[in-house]
């Protein structure tokens, strides 16, 4: 067993102990850390994902990439206010270093065009989950190749009047951003009387998708007005576009 592999095995054991112990710091010094990333100042030519990538296995470290592999980083979820948030168990007695990445394509956060990736060190005096502080990062630039462009779609959907207040709404379909076909992966943000999300796809992507409510259970998928199965919605993505849909009926209401 190599030294890298041994370290990864030890960190796996530490995480298991953390879950058995519950929230807060464990005997091994592993604590849950909250991350919040603001990308509102970034003009992103492609992609919508945000991830934390660093030197601990819960944020992407592997035997081959001990500093963190973007493919295995901690994927953050977009909130209603537009920020991306997530939590990871990390060792408070170590120097945990991470970089904020954009996905689709993977591109690290940089301070200025042409600059090196910005490394952040977890401040465990304020980062522990539940303290109300955590790790907050504002991104102004991602190191995205200038020749990469993807058309984006703004999905706007109106839901029936009997939709329970507070129920989340998701979009699921035949693209990795939409599952593929995982009903609880891609949430939409509530905005007044409708829901919306802005996503970017490969040029010429022939999308098929549906809307689903609540916990992402297919038993709460959209239906035709008479309750019969609704055909998949379709859209070929060739340019930036805004798409407005209306859910006429939910399967369970």
Write a concise keyword list for the protein shown above.
five-stranded antiparallel beta sheet; 19 strands; mainly beta
Folded structure, characterized:
With about 250 residues, the protein is mainly β. Helix content is about 10%, strand content about 35%. It is built from one helix and 19 strands. The strands form five sheets. Strands 2, 3, 6, 7 and 8 form a five-stranded antiparallel beta sheet that branches. Strands 4-5-1-9 form a four-stranded mixed beta sheet. The protein has a four-stranded mixed beta sheet with strand order 13-14-10-18, with no helix packed on it. A hairpin with a 2-residue loop joins strand 13 (about 190) and strand 14 (about 195-200). It is globular, with a radius of gyration of 20 Å.
Major sheet: size, sense and barrel closure?
A: 5 strands, antiparallel
| Percent of sequence in beta strands | 35-45%
| SSE series | HEEEEEEEEEEEEEEEEEEE
> What do the pLDDT scores average to?
84
- Classify the secondary structure makeup into a structural class: mainly beta
Number of helices: 1
Pick out the low-confidence regions: 12-23
Radius of gyration: 20 Å
């Amino acid at each position: 067993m190599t030294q890298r592999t041994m370290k990864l095995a030890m960190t796996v054991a530490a995480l298991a102990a953390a879950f058995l112990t519950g929230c807060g710091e464990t005997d091994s010094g592993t604590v849950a850390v909250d991350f919040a990333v603001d990308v509102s100042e970034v003009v992103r030519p492609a992609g919508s994902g945000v991830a934390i990538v660093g030197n601990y296995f819960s944020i992407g470290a592997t035997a081959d990439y001990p500093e963190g592999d973007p493919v295995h980083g901690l994927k953050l979820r977009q909130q209603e206010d537009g920020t991306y948030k997530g939590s990871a168990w990390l060792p408070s007695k170590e120097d945990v270093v991470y970089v904020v990445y954009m996905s689709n394509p993977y591109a690290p956060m940089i301070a200025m065009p042409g600059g090196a990736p910005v490394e952040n060190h977890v401040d465990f005096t304020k980062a522990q989950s539940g303290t109300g502080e955590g790790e907050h990062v504002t991104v102004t630039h991602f190191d995205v190749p200038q020749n990469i462009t993807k058309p984006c779609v703004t999905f706007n959907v109106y839901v029936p009047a009997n939709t329970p207040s507070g129920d989340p709404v998701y979009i699921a379909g035949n693209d990795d951003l939409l599952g593929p076909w995982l009903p609880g992966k891609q949430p939409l943000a509530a905005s007044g009387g409708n829901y919306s999300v802005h996503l970017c796809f490969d040029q010429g992507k022939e999308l098929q998708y549906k809307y689903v409510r609540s916990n992402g259970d297919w038993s709460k998928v959209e239906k035709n007005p008479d309750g019969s199965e609704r055909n998949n919605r379709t859209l070929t993505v060739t340019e930036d576009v805004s798409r407005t849909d209306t859910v006429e009926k939910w399967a369970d209401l």
